[in-house]
Amino acid sequence: MKLKGKKVGVAFTGSFCTYDKVFTELQNLVEEGAEVQTIFSDAAQTIDSRFGNAHDFVADARRITGIEPMMTIVQAEPIGPKSLLDILVILPCTGNTIAKLANGITDTPVLMAAKAHLRNEKPLVVSLSTNDALGINMKNIGMLMNSKHIYFVPFGQDNPGKKPNSMIAHTELLIPALEAAIEGKQYQPVIQ
Q1: Which stretch of DSSP H or E encloses residue 36?
Q2: Closest residue by Cα to residue 108 from 49, 56, 166, 46
Q3: What is the largest CA-CA distance in the chain?
Q4: Quick one: pLDDT at residue 30?
Q5: Would the pTM of this model clear 0.90, i.e. be above it?
Q6: How far is it, in rounded angstroms, from Cα 124 to Cα 9?
Q7: CA angle (34, 171, 100) in 5-degree steps
Q8: Cβ pair 168, 155 in contact under 8 A
Q9: Where is 122: in which H helix or E strand?
Q10: Number of Cβ atoms within 10 Å of the Cβ of 146
Q11: Digits of tens for pLDDT over the chain (192 positions)?
Q12: How distant, in Å, are the alpha carbons of 52, 71, 98, 144 from that of 56?
């Protein structure tokens, strides 16, 4: 119960195919006793897909956490100066968000939350979900893995036969990955 009473940010990006697992882990964090603040990227809060309706996802986050989600860059910016979080996880983290994070771009609420949080030298955890992890985005993943205060939920290939460059986080390892990151450690093994 290392997360009990911890202020945990959970930032959603648009890898909608992972949302069933992601919302299970959101519920698990609340049951662990964490105070969970959700943040939604522009895509996560506006795009309806075959995996569900954006409005419903936002409502589910509000219901599970009991806290109003952050939906704008302006709402996310105070995470830094007010030191609002103990730890932040981007769950799921798309290839687009990985690329922008690695290159210092802050054009969504999630990226602003990450930038603001990292200014306090607190742990940021990446739960990746991208079809190009072993392709063009490998360099960005490598940059993030070599960055201070950035940790990863262990990940692996999800469909090497049909999508050989695709990798996805093992979200069932989210809680132990967060607990390790709070202690300044990367949960191992990273690639499973």
Answers
A1: strand 35-40
A2: 46
A3: 46
A4: 98
A5: yes
A6: 9
A7: 90
A8: yes
A9: none
A10: 9
A11: 699 999 999 999 999 999 999 999 999 999 999 999 999 999 999 999 999 999 999 999 999 999 999 999 999 999 999 999 999 999 999 999 999 999 999 999 999 999 999 999 999 999 999 999 999 999 999 999 999 999 999 999 999 999 999 999 999 999 999 999 999 999 999 999
A12: 7, 14, 25, 31
Non-local (6+) Cβ contacts of 53 within 8 A are none
Under 8 Å CB-to-CB from 136, ≥6 apart: which residues? Answer: none
9 sits in which H/E element: strand 7-12
* Long-range contacts at 60-66 (CB < 8 A, ≥ 24 apart): 60/23, 61/10, 61/12, 61/23, 61/26, 62/38, 64/23, 64/26, 64/27, 64/30, 64/36, 65/26, 65/30, 65/36, 65/37, 65/38
CA distances (Å), origin 16, targets 5, 38, 68: 29, 16, 20
pLDDT at residue 57 in the model: 97
* The two structure tokens encoding residue 184: 């300044």
Tokens coding 173: 């390892």
- What is the sign of the dihedral through the CA atoms of 1, 192, 37 and 19? negative
